Amino acid sequence: MKMKQFGVIGLGRFGSSLARELTNNGFEVLGVDRDEEAVSEMSEVLTHAIVADSTDEETLRSIGIRNFDCVIVAIGDDIQASIMTAILLKDLGVEMVVAKALSVLHGKVLERLGVDRIIYPERDMGIRVAHQLVNPNLLDYIELSKDYTIAEISAPKCLNGKTLEELNPRAKYGCSVVAINKKDGVIIAPTATDVINERDVMVIIGTNKQIESFEEELV
Ligand code: ADP
């Protein structure tokens, strides 16, 4: 099912950036914050932005929050408000509740309340930035599981003009190049004769160790 209507509760730094991005992607977004200033800053950007306290059940009911496809609790500092909002949203029958957690314990409580997805923005961004600092060619990555990762690696100069056969990452490092994003288009499932040029983005799948050893060769 494609999601269409989002509710974002808490228009602080995280919530406002999330709400803005969802709107830019063409979705309908209702922003809620108890702070008038936070709401007025976003009122031009979002489909709707209202001043309300999300810990008040009647308020949530009256704005028809249960009809939203996904509601994100972007309240961080006020843990009590975050927890109360999350429980009310689940009780009111919101299908998909996503909440930001500031600590592992906060996340555990949200999990117990039945929150569908918990995000740790500060922790995750810290990990991401550390990976990118250690591996300058690493553009982005997704952890598929504890061991397996998909990484986007920018091809450095030393790979310019090499074919995948010459590079041979599967035999040398155990990881596979599943796509190459070039200036003029993406090659999905590239073959041995496909050539890599500097700054092409290689999408690689493998264990963390395999990807790390591949990256080490590129530095
Ligand atoms: P960030 O670190 O992303 O800026 P904050 O926790 O500082 O996150 O900000 C969260 C926002 O949530 C603030 O704008 C605050 O006014 C709002 N907020 C906190 N509690 C409630 C509540 N009960 N109802 C609505 N908005 C709330």
Automatic annotation (TrEMBL):
GO terms for molecular function: monoatomic cation transmembrane transporter activity. It comes from Paenibacillus oceani. Gene3D superfamilies: NAD(P)-binding Rossmann-like Domain (3.40.50.720), Regulator of K+ conductance, C-terminal domain (3.30.70.1450). GO terms for biological process: potassium ion transport. It comes from the Bacteria. Residues 136-219 form the RCK C-terminal domain. Residues 3-119 form the RCK N-terminal domain. InterPro entries: NAD(P)-bd_dom_sf, RCK_C, RCK_C_sf, RCK_N, Trk_Ktr_HKT_K-transport. This is TrkA family potassium uptake protein.
